[in-house]
Amino acid sequence: MPKDEYQYTNDWFQTGAKGVWDALIPKIAPTRILEIGSYEGASTCYLIEKLAAHKKIEIQCVDTWEGGIEHKQSQKDMSAVEKRYKQNIETALKRVDHRATIIQHKGYSDAILPKLLAEGKQGYFDFIYVDGSHQAPDVLCDAVLSFKLLKKNGVVVFDDYLWQENLPYGTDPLRCPKLAIDAFTNIYSRKMRIISAPLYQLYVQKISD
Fold first, then answer.
1. How far is CA 118 from CA 92, 95, 111, 162, in A?
2. What is the predicted pLDDT for the residue at 165?
3. How far from 145 is each of 16, 33, 103, 112, 133, CA to CA, in Å?
4. Is residue 53 within 8 Å of residue 80, measured between CB atoms?
């Protein structure tokens, strides 16, 4: 594959979020972005090309590059995934005129997000994409901390809202994002509004702290 082409092994972003983002991202035009779960960088590269062609942006990416339970069970080579992420980011940065600052946080979100808050990043981000662990307790933690980091009128997107893991004994709700996302949106219902979009992702706008 030529060096100036992206190296993706799946089309998750293309068939999922991209259709909604094509309309949403130009409308909200975020400058400061937080991404929880970057994998091969498909969404990061999309945002770089879509936004950094017109202005300076900052994207902070949080990922362990160890994979979740589902990746460990399939014995996915996560070191290769991280290598593709870095190569794809380099490719995207070469395609835009304006500067994009990419900050990579390698580690668990429940350690990194509180660190960002401690550094004074409360209400800092315009747009947050939550696509990390699919385990309900982890998703709930990411949701609550992300809401603190999101500025008023900012948007947070939860990927894989209806995702279910194929297990021998059926579906385990604690190993799916939906239970956590529903708990979050119910508890924070007076501080947010849900943006109409296909339900494979859930889109939320913060209306108050």
1. 31, 34, 11, 32
2. 84
3. 24, 14, 18, 10, 14
4. no
Report d(CA 68, CA 93) in Å as an integer: 28
- Predicted pLDDT at 16: 86
Domains of the chain: 12-98+109-206 (3.40.50.150)
Mean pLDDT per 10-residue interval, the chain, length 209 residues: 78 92 96 97 97 96 85 70 96 93 97 98 98 96 98 97 87 93 98 93 96
Reading the block at residue 185, the tokens are: 């949106």
Distance CA 80, CA 180 (A): 30
- What separation, in Å, do the N-terminal and C-terminal C-alpha atoms of the chain show? 47
Q: Which amino acid is it at 131?
A: D
pTM: 0.93
CA dist., res. 33 & res. 105, Å (int) = 13
Give the amino acid at 75: Q
